[in-house]
Amino acid sequence: MTSSDVWTAEQAQRYDGVGGVFAAEVVEETVDVLAALAAGGASLELAIGTGRIGVPLRAKGVHVTGIELSRPMVEVLRTKVTDEELPVVIGDMATTRVEGEFALVFLVFNTIGNLRTQDEQVECFRNAARHLSPGGRFVVEVGVPPLRRLVPGQVAVPFDVSDKHLGFDTFDLVTQQATSHHLNLQADGSYRRGTHNYRFVWPSELDLMARLAGLELERRTQDWAGTPFGPQSESHVSVWRRP
Ligand SMILES: C[S@@+](CC[C@H](N)C(=O)[O-])C[C@H]1O[C@@H](n2cnc3c(N)ncnc32)[C@H](O)[C@@H]1O
Question: Is the pTM of this model over 0.90?
Answer without folding.
Answer: yes
